[in-house]
Design brief:
InterPro entries: CBS_dom (IPR000644), CBS_dom_sf (IPR046342), Diverse_CBS-Domain (IPR051257). There is one protein chain. By secondary structure, the chain is of the alpha/beta class. The protein is built from seven helices and seven strands, in the order αββαββααβαββαα. The chain has helices spanning 4-7, 21-31, 51-58, 70-73, 87-96, 116-122, 125-135; strands at 9-10, 15-16, 35-39, 45-50, 81-82, 101-106, 109-115.
């Protein structure tokens, strides 16, 4: 059985909720990623910040990314899967919530992220087609 841990990109980094968006952008640049999980003071997942969130939700609205925190931008209930979740569970979570990036948790700690690129490398053409159809249907 293929698990979330088998297909995830390991080495994902948290960004603390109190950090500013300019710091998040720097971390994204340094790690060559488009999103970062946001951690609260107890290192619990409280959201995900994307490069698009920074541009559209902050800069385009005329806000200063050096003054807005990641926690300010965290909205909704963050979605995640355990590292031992099977691929069907991963797909159900991502498709059911129309999300493109999914944190992977093990022993209450972030161990990786699953992105569309990870799915493309590990899934069948039929699974990828179903994923794309459901996640992008409402876009």
């Amino acid at each position: 059985m293929t698990t979330a841990k088998d297909i995830m990109h390991s080495g994902a980094q948290w960004i603390p909720a109190h950090e500013t968006l300019d710091r998040a952008a720097q971390m994204m640049r340094d790690h060559n990623v488009g999103s970062l999980p946001i951690a609260d003071e107890n290192e619990r997942l409280c959201g995900i910040i994307t490069d698009r969130d920074i541009v559209v939700g902050c800069v385009a609205e005329g806000h200063d990314p050096s003054r807005v925190t990641c926690g300010d931008m965290a909205k909704g209930t963050p979605r995640w899967v355990e590292s031992d979740a099977d691929v069907d569970t991963v797909l159900e979570e991502m498709q059911g919530h129309q999300i493109r990036r999914l944190p992977v948790i093990e022993n209450k700690r972030l161990v990786g992220m699953i992105s569309e690129a990870d799915l493309a490398q590990h899934l069948s053409d039929e699974q990828i087609k179903a994923f794309v159809s459901s996640v992008y249907a409402g876009s």
